[in-house]
Design a protein that fits this description.
The chain has 407 residues and is an alpha/beta fold. The protein folds into two domains: 255 residues, Spore Coat Polysaccharide Biosynthesis Protein SpsA, Chain A, CATH 3.90.550.10; 134 residues, no CATH class. Helices cover 55% and strands 12% of the residues. The protein contains ten helices and nine strands. Strands 3-2-1-4-7-5-8 form a seven-stranded mixed sheet. Strands 6-9 form a two-stranded parallel ribbon. It binds guanosine-5'-diphosphate-alpha-D-mannose and manganese (II) ion. Manganese (II) ion (MN) binds next to loops.
Length: 407
């Protein structure tokens, strides 16, 4: 039944009776034109009746809209309901279960393509909303944060102790979690497109949703817009020692999360190098069996054991046989390729043959160049064979057997 919104503004409330209605009115006034916006208030059964206040407000607004429709029906001119640019919704929770979980629940029940999160106590000035949204629309893959700690931003009305703690908390997050692209990572006032959180599993307790997004939405661009945080005039802050402890706990969790995902990448990197080396080892073993086969066949063909060929003929047969056996051994054993369709196999064989020929020619050219530039023959031979066989391995890996070079 709900029309999907363009923008969802999420406002958690706990005892914000004095603030919330006035805030909603001002926000409606500040919203950028052309965006259908839902304002979602998530109330944790506030004892001061914030939830009831909002419920009444919505009911009133609805009855106005309904009488508007009635009216419109009567003189069938304008349809009040279609001119709506915003709608207010209430999410009611039984118990006070914390700021982050309230915001997350609000997000879950929202429909907007873009999401903006803010406090209910006027600490986050509604005038900043259009600035955040405009910036977000300019780069819809970024997260736009209202910031107290960039030039132009500030805090008004906090005691010195809390200023210091907030600064400290921001520093801990920036250095501990290596967030080098943001100055106010603990801001509670920010906007982002829904898709960047779609694959995130949130599990932090405590107070800082933004931190978790910054750590887990890897590589997301961050833009900060300065604002002045004004301490609340009505109601009470829920900031206390418990909040501080939760914060430290949350940062620690995110730190471990970062370390674990790095460990996983290190593990993966190790696995890939082992794979690469073991394939190279197999490829060279196969090469050695080829040489041996070549040698034995040439011997048998020239020494009259099987027949009496001219030595160049014998060597040609030896080479062809060894390349062929190399090909199949590499296909089956080195690269574990089980696709034996005639077409594919023939194509690969042709490629392998071509690369072996190129390898041989490269080897001769290198040998010539090394010897010419004054290297000893044996050393030159070893170098030339090594260079040609390395490139042979890599090129066959990539082109004949269609694998990535690394891994
Ligand atoms: N539903 C719900 N449940 N709302 C809550 C809860 C809760 O358990 N706890 C707090 N809120 C609401 C408040 O009603 C207010 O709208 C908002 O969350 C922020 O709570 P405050 O108690 O005013 O927080 P603050 O001013 O100390 O902290 C602010 O500053 C931090 C930066 O230092 C907040 O803006 C934080 O988000 C911000 O990170
Ligand atoms: Mn506050």
């Amino acid at each position: 039944m709900f029309e999907k919104a363009d923008l969802s503004v999420i406002i958690p409330t706990y005892n914000e009776y004095e603030n919330i209605l006035q805030l909603v009115e001002i926000i409606k006034d500040k919203l950028p034109d052309g965006l259908f916006t839902e304002i979602i208030i998530v109330d944790d059964n506030s004892p001061d009746g914030t939830g009831r206040l909002i419920a009444n407000y919505i009911e009133n607004a609805l009855s106005k809209v309904c009488s508007g429709i009635q009216h419109a029906h009567e003189n069938s001119s304008n349809f009040a309901i279609n001119t709506r640019e915003s709608i207010v919704r209430l999410v009611r929770r039984e118990n006070k279960s914390g700021l982050i979980s309230a915001i997350l629940q609000g997000i879950k029940s929202s429909t907007g393509k873009y999401i903006l999160v803010m406090d209910a106590d006027f600490s986050h000035p509604p005038e900043t909303i259009p600035l955040l949204i405009n910036e977000l629309l300019r780069d819809p893959n970024s997260i736009v944060v209202a910031s107290r700690y960039i030039r132009g931003g500030s805090i008004r009305g906090w005691p010195y102790k809390r200023l210091l703690l907030s600064r400290l908390a921001a520093k801990i997050a920036i250095h501990g979690l290596k967030l080098c692209n943001i100055r106010d990572p603990i801001s509670g006032f920010f906007a982002f497109p829904r898709h960047i959180i779609e694959n995130i599993r949130f599990d932090t307790y405590g107070y800082k949703l933004l931190l978790e997004i910054l750590v887990k939405a890897q590589g997301v661009r961050v833009k900060e817009i300065p604002y002045t945080f004004i301490d609340r005039k009505s109601g009470e802050s829920k900031f206390d020692n418990r909040v501080m402890l939760d914060y430290v706990h949350a940062v620690w969790h995110l730190y471990r999360y970062g370390r674990e995902s790095k460990l996983v990448t290190a593990e993966e990197e190790k696995r890939r190098s082992v794979l690469f080396l073991s394939k190279a080892a197999r490829f060279y073993s196969v090469g050695a069996t080829g040489l041996l086969l070549n040698y034995i066949v040439s011997m048998m063909l020239t020494k009259g054991i099987i027949s009496n060929f001219w030595y160049l003929q014998a060597s040609t047969i030896g080479i062809i046989l060894s390349i062929t056996s190399n090909f199949f051994l590499n296909k089956i054993w080195t690269f574990e390729d089980r696709n034996f369709s005639p077409r594919n196999t023939l194509k690969q064989y042709g490629m392998f043959l071509g690369l072996s020929t190129v390898g041989g020619v490269v080897q001769l050219i290198l040998l010539y160049l090394f010897v010419q530039s004054g290297f000893q023959y044996t050393a030159s031979l070893v170098l030339a064979v090594a260079a040609a066989s390395v490139s042979n391995f890599l090129l066959n890996k990539k082109w004949t057997f269609r694998e990535k070079i690394w891994g």
